[in-house]
Design a protein that fits this description.
- InterPro entries: 3-OHacyl-CoA_DH_CS, 3-OHacyl-CoA_DH_NAD-bd, 3HC_DH_C, 6-PGluconate_DH-like_C_sf, ClpP/crotonase-like_dom_sf, Enoyl-CoA_hyd/isom_CS, Enoyl-CoA_hydra/iso, NAD(P)-bd_dom_sf.
- The protein has 718 residues and is an alpha/beta fold.
- It folds into 4 domains: 2-259, 2-enoyl-CoA Hydratase, Chain A, domain 1, CATH 3.90.226.10; 299-476, 3-Layer(aba) Sandwich (Rossmann fold); 489-601, N-(1-d-carboxylethyl)-l-norvaline Dehydrogenase, domain 2 (Orthogonal Bundle), CATH 1.10.1040.10; 611-711, N-(1-d-carboxylethyl)-l-norvaline Dehydrogenase, domain 2.
- Helices cover 46% and strands 11% of the residues.
- The strands form 4 sheets. An 8-stranded mixed β-sheet has the order 12-11-10-13-14-15-16-17, with helices on both faces. The protein has a 6-stranded mixed β-sheet with strand order 1-2-3-4-6-9, with helices on both faces.
- A hairpin with a 2-residue loop joins strand 18 (549-550) and strand 19.
- Helix 1 packs parallel to helix 2 (75-84).
- The chain is globular and about 95 Å long.
- The protein binds ligand L4473FGL.
- Ligand L4473FGL binds at residues 20-21, 23, 59-64, 96, 98-100, 122-123, 126, 128, 131, 275.
Length: 718
């Protein structure tokens, strides 16, 4: 709702009241209409102040209403009504003014912000555009180039930048409300015509076409295939070239097209699932609601390799004092230097004073961890080494200290077996670079206690990461699903495709990089090392093993052969591609003839592999593994899998995540295709459709949010 009160000085104050973010629900819109009408009709009122309750102006339209039938007054005429008011309307921006919230403020005649506030036209992140006049008023207010950037990225703009750009008229460190009231008194009685943005003309550069073309190029690089940012560019073009009323018409047309699109649905699904992941539960009844996290006042990181350094920086950035441990003086020195320079860059970028960072001390002595609340071990993926460390930690750390292992796939329970308190051992799978990537898989072993899970999830929140609770199995959720995906990519090469063909299909789907470019970037030796450890290649491979088969299943030795010949990816200048200019991947003629030789050596008839087959075999095999993960209770819900893929594996947000995508495609189609590919490739068992997929199809393919109820009938590893 919106509360109305009159205060001395002939001011009407209208307060949006809809916790937690004062979203513009149907009731709020009705109340705004009513209260603004009341204020404009009241002879005693000379100016109006519009604010939000609880220190937040407004988080925009109520996203929950998007999936229901639209009720109540629409936003556009409501904002027009405010702009048309003869009495000045001053918006008090505290906390946030996002999406429709900022559009509402742009309809006001003045905007006063608190220094801690943020503004933004965030609609594009929900697959929409700012269709309550935002695409037409913002360019008129701050010019086309700056508006184009804000509208197409949906980025959050600080109050300081907002005042610099002219989005707000004033920023204050003290009470924005008091400032606005005093200001409103000074402008009462002035003509408001010049303050109506709809009457302004957008300042536009001469080379408008090249500005817009440049934006489209950046959009294609950032989110290929996404409709909303392209529509945003078209709407801003209208603001630059058409009168306001026609621009508004264009904005509405574009919105009508986006609003019902699958992409908008997918992105709104991502918004809610990301928040739902924090509300973890386990079948034992433990949950975020009934389990208290232990406070973490001091943390330690063991190992200052790539992951350890990023984790230490993340902790420090969250204001947590860190003790960083290494085994050798040389490594300690190099680690300290790297961490300190990362922190310096970080504080410069964020304008943070050092006081806001947690201190980091460096040591070779594990005994220094005796008072630590939480330790994150981040050494190499070597089970024996990890167990040794956990055994030592058990004797040096406090009995209640939480012991976390940063592993991308090792058995948490085996690591925990080396600790004297296995219930306090939890997996924290960070993603590289750990101070940048948002995802944290919190891996729960069979003996991990709810308190350990709660503390790790709370830590994720403090580190501004998205924590997702997963069960213990090789590769957990994310990496386990990657395996069949990468394997299919190798098999497609064996059968006749080229790396650039596979990558192009995946990039057109929306991944920033195809799988072969990703492997070249991270280094082919990463997978090689783990295949050697698993005895799939290298010295542990039993003599006489068939080259293209392991345990009766198809195996591709292609990546092993590349590694053996020193092609490790970007770092060696060649991998699946050639890198003559640093980081620029070009198709390599050598690889082409190598693949031809390989096929003829193994008697493989090369064929033209179509784009549909590339996409289906790669994605459906990954999705199929997702269904198996659900069946085994390794993930609590399909939504959790989708959060993992969107926030940690570059799955395009406008496709919602693999499980959501499967549902959008149609589960019967996914099942049918998997059956087909399994029939034609019986030596690839993971193409056999999972029983969970069959079950969902048999039940009429219910929407994703209903799967959880079906899953609960199965076993759970959580
Ligand atoms: C007719 C079409 C018109 C479209 C124009 C629009 O306005 S589209 C909406 C544009 N708004 C946004 O994009 C803002 C989305 N919200 C946020 O970015 C953040 O929630 C926040 C406002 C920055 C607050 O962040 P914080 O971390 O403090 O809290 P949460 O994100 O956890 O949110 C708290 C709960 O509030 C729910 N919520 C947030 N925004 C909205 C919203 N606009 N509509 C409905 N609900 C919203 C959020 O889901 C959380 O709910 P829980 O049930 O507690 O999970």
């Amino acid at each position: 709702m919106a509360l109305y009160r009159r205060i001395p000085g002939a001011i009407a104050v209208i307060t949006l009241t809809n916790p937690p973010v004062n979203a513009l629900s149907c009731t709020v819109r009705e109340a705004i209409y009513e209260t603004v009408k009341r204020a404009t009709a009241d002879q005693e009122v000379k100016a109006i102040v519009l604010c939000g309750a609880n220190g937040k102006f407004c988080g925009g339209a109520d996203i929950k209403e998007f999936s229901r039938e639209m009720r109540g007054p629409p936003l556009v005429p409501m904002i027009d009504m405010i702009e048309e008011s003869e009495k000045p309307v001053v918006a008090v921006i505290e906390g946030v003014a996002f999406g429709g919230g900022l559009e509402l403020a742009l309809g006001c005649h003045y905007r006063i912000a608190h220094s801690g506030a943020q503004v933004g036209l965030t609609e594009v992140t929900l697959g929409l555009l700012p269709a309550a006049g935002g695409t037409q008023r913002l360019p008129r207010l701050i010019g086309v180039p700056a508006a184009l950037d804000i509208i197409t990225t949906g980025r959050h703009v600080s109050a300081q930048e907002a005042v610099r750009l002219g989005i707000v008229d004033k920023v204050t460190d003290s009470s924005a409300m008091e400032e606005a009231i005093e200001f409103a008194k000074t402008v009462a009685g002035e003509p408001m015509g010049p303050r109506r943005l709809s009457l302004w003309t957008a300042a536009c550069p001469e080379d408008l076409d090249s500005l817009l073309e440049g934006a489209l190029v950046r959009i294609r690089q950032r989110s290929r295939g996404a409709l909303a940012p392209v529509a945003c560019v078209q709407a801003v073009r209208a603001a630059a070239s058409l009168p306001f009323a026609q621009g508004m018409k264009k904005e509405q047309e574009l919105m009508a097209y986006l609003f019902t699109s699958g992409q908008a649905r997918a992105m709104q699904y991502c918004f809610f699932t990301q928040r739902a992941a924090a509300r973890w539960t386990t079948p034992s009844g433990a949950s975020w609601e009934n389990t208290k996290a232990r406070p973490v006042r001091q943390a330690a990181v063991i190992g200052l390799g790539t992951m350890g350094k990023g984790i230490a920086v993340s902790l420090s950035r969250a204001g947590i004092p860190v003790i960083a441990v290494e085994t050798e003086q040389k490594r300690l020195k190099a680690g300290r230097k790297a961490v300190n320079s990362m922190l310096t860059r970080e504080s410069q970028k964020r304008g943070l004073a050092e006081a806001h960072l947690g201190s980091i001390s460096f040591t070779l002595d594990l005994r220094k961890l005796r008072d630590t609340d939480l330790v994150i071990e981040a050494v190499f993926e070597d089970m024996a080494l990890k167990k040794q460390i956990f055994s030592k930690l058990s004797s040096v750390c406090r009995p209640d200290a939480l012991l976390c292992t940063n592993t991308s796939g090792l058995n948490i329970d085996e690591i925990a077996s080396a600790a004297s308190r296995p219930e306090l051992v939890v997996g924290t799978h960070f993603f590289a670079p750990a101070h940048v990537m948002k995802l944290l898989e919190v891996v729960c072993g069979p003996r991990t206690s709810p308190v350990a899970v709660a503390t790790a999830m709370q830590l994720a929140k403090r580190l501004e990461k998205i924590g997702v609770v997963v069960g213990n199995c090789s590769g957990f959720v994310g990496n386990r699903m990657m395996r069949p995906y990468t394997e299919q990519a190798y098999y497609l090469l064996e059968e006749g495709a080229r790396p650039e063909e596979v990558d192009l299909v995946l990039e057109e789907f929306g991944f920033a990089m195809g799988i072969f470019r990703v492997m070249d970037l991270s280094g082919l030796d990463v997978g090689w090392r783990s295949r050697k450890e698993l005895g799939l290649t290298g010295p542990k491979l039993p003599p006489g093993t068939e080259a293209r088969s392991r345990g009766g299943k198809r195996y591709s030795p292609l990546p092993d052969i590349l590694c053996e010949s020193g092609r490790l990816g970007q770092k060696t200048g060649r991998g699946w591609y050639l890198y003559e200019k640093e980081r620029v991947a070009t198709p390599d003629p050598w690889l082409q003839s190598f693949l031809e030789d390989y096929r003829s050596r193994f008697g493989i008839q090369s064929r033209r592999v179509g784009q549909d087959e590339i996409l289906e075999r790669c994605l459906y095999s990954l999705i199929n593994e997702g269904f198996r993960i659900l069946q085994e209770g390794i993930a609590a819900s399909p939504e959790d899998i989708d959060v993992i893929y969107v926030s940690g594996y570059g799955w395009p947000r406008h496709r919602g995540g693999p499980m959501f995508y499967a549902w959008m495609v149609g589960l019967p189609k996914v099942l049918d295709k998997l059956e087909h590919y399994h029939r034609t490739h019986p030596d690839i068992p993971n193409l056999a459709p999972s029983s969970m997929l069959r079950k969902l199809v048999a039940r009429g393919s219910p929407p994703v949010h209903q799967w959880r109820a079906l899953i609960q009938q199965h076993s759970s590893q959580l």
